[in-house]
TrEMBL record:
PANTHER family: BLL8164 PROTEIN, UDP-2,3-DIACYLGLUCOSAMINE HYDROLASE-RELATED. Gene3D superfamilies: 3.60.21.10. GO terms for molecular function: metal ion binding; UDP-2,3-diacylglucosamine hydrolase activity. Keywords: Cell inner membrane, Cell membrane, Manganese, Membrane, Metal-binding. InterPro entries: Calcineurin-like_PHP, LpxH-like, Metallo-depent_PP-like. One of its GO terms (biological process) is lipid A biosynthetic process. The lineage of its organism: Bacteria, Pseudomonadati, Bacteroidota, Flavobacteriia, Flavobacteriales. One of its GO terms (cellular component) is membrane. This is UDP-2,3-diacylglucosamine pyrophosphatase LpxH. Pfam families: Metallophos. Residues 7-204 form the Calcineurin-like phosphoesterase domain. The keyword Manganese applies. It comes from the Bacteria.
Length: 274
């Protein structure tokens, strides 16, 4: 039985990279029936795109998103830095799917501002080559981490995240995350928003931020590389959904509602943007 969800936000999927957990994401998408789905940037990683590596599991995620758009789900694809090539097509619409750089919604009288968040990242704005190099290094780190976790799992031991350990111990990384959240929140407060939703930093979060001008709720959907997380809105409240904590909800259905598009045809479409 699929769960009805009013609004779902996912970001930082990075389809086309070794670290992407496309199979897990597909299970999650197959388990829900969202009224609105927001794809908040870095869904397809065009920075690191290689035609030689775009597995069927990654293509199935794209097909699933198309299947949502062909039914009753409204889909907003907000561009990020890794899929910035799509920004030239801003405001493009295809059925129920709309491409945009940011999104403003109102839910139960509350104003919501959604954007990816790379605008706050100096390395992306002023040293793109450095950001791309960092992206490749991160992808390599995740690949090595995946192999090590495979061995740990075989030995019955708990998985380990190099990236999370680095972020939690390096003061600069911790400060960057805190500054990012504060900057986004203060801008939202100044512009009269009740909620601000970002991605980009791969850090799931729901927290209230105050300043002299007021307050807002800052939210981040995390990612589908390490945290395997999404934001869900139902009955006036937000929750962070973690795949690992909710495996019992997933059932083996179901590719019956996925459009009949060949993987080769879909890959040709993706390649045009890469």
């Amino acid at each position: 039985m699929k769960r009805n969800v009013e609004l779902v936000v996912i970001s930082d999927v990075h389809l086309g990279t070794y670290g992407c957990k496309a199979k897990e994401l597909l299970k999650y998408l197959n388990s829900i029936n969202p009224k609105t789905l927001v794809l908040n940037g870095d869904i397809i990683d065009i920075w690191q795109f290689k035609k030689s590596y775009f597995p069927k599991s990654h293509l199935k995620v794209i097909k699933k998103i198309i299947s949502f758009a062909s039914k009753k789900t409204g889909i907003f694809y907000i561009t990020g830095n890794h899929d910035e090539m799509f920004r030239k097509f801003t405001d493009f619409k295809l059925g129920k799917l709309k491409l945009c750089n940011k999104l403003c919604l109102e839910l139960n009288g509350k104003k919501i501002w959604i954007f990816h968040g790379d605008v706050f990242d100096a390395s992306v704005q002023h040293s793109k080559w450095l950001a791309k190099l960092g992206g490749k290094g991160y992808d390599l780190l995740i690949l090595i981490n995946t192999l090590i976790n495979w061995f740990l799992e075989k030995m019955g031991k708990e998985k380990y995240s190099f990236s999370k350990k680095i972020k939690s111990n390096v003061k600069k990384a911790v400060k960057f995350i805190g500054d990012f959240e504060l900057t986004a929140s203060e801008l939202a407060i100044d512009n009269g928003y009740d909620y601000v939703i970002c991605g980009h930093i791969h850090q799931p979060q729901i927290r209230e931020v105050y300043n002299k001008n007021g307050s807002c709720i800052y939210l981040n959907s995390g990612d589908w590389i390490e945290n395997l997380s999404a934001l869900e809105y139902n009955n006036g409240s937000w929750e962070i959904f973690y795949y690992e904590e909710n495996k019992h909800l997933f059932i083996n259905e179901e590719q019956d509602d996925i459009p009949d598009i060949s993987n080769d045809e879909l890959l040709k479409i993706v390649t045009q943007f890469a």
